[in-house]
User: What shape does this take?
Amino acid sequence: MSRFAYSCAAIGLIAGISVAGLPAGAQTPTYCEPDVGSPTNLKTIKHGLLEGYLAPNAVPDSLKLLPAHPMKGSMAYDLDVANAESTFPLQGGPRWEVAAIDANLHFPEAAAIYSCALGVPITEEGTPRLYNLLRRTLTDAGLATYKAKNNYQRPRPFMVNGKPICTPDEETLLRGDGSYPSGHTAAGWAWALVLSELAPERRDAILARGIEYGKSRYICNVHWLSDVQASQIIASSTVAQLQNDPVFRADLRAARAEVQAMRRQGTSPNGDCDLERRALQP
Assistant: This one.
């Protein structure tokens, strides 16, 4: 028997003895698996994305999971239009600035999006396992939206209402990329779920930031409300699937340790927390 197997057997025996002495219903949380995380030679795939954790056949099928997007004349479509119009007064203000920051999913900039909510800096140098965890889950969650996105090719709000977007340099690209569901929102909500798991002491702040991340997409005038809501379903499905991957779980444990170390050191977030406070205050 290998040293690892002996260790697992010992942990299992100790856990069994401990549970025997606990009140009914109490549990001793343990895990016993190799701590082999992501390799150092990960490949970069299309659009500069780092390869994800999930094999193609393990990625949730958005076309099967989601209904068709709301059609003109329906109450849901009217709600999409009304919601878009309600955000127009925010254009040019602090919330518009946050929406533009949230739109940038290029690293290293994207790593700082949840830094304020997490309460520590997120960098390749200081938190390398967390940094790669975010990059890889971005790929898994974002690509999970594309079966439905390519099938429906829904026009984006700015193509309908003629109003500006918070990332004007991307307008040409966005015109050729379907609106439903939102790939950005899928990545952002997946990040919120993963980060709230590795830092439960900051769960509410992280999830609240995840909700605001989704709002950024329709405040930016590049997605409809229903695009955002659909993507949160895809993100949740993706994160549930990631829990089955031992490499993801190992990276999650390592990232948790990095965050705890940063917190003990008293390091400050590397996001624009003052802007977030002004823009996201109730």
Summary: Residues 1-7, 9-29 have pLDDT under 50 and may be disordered. Residues 75 and 81 are 10 Å apart (CA to CA). The longest helix spans residues 246-265.
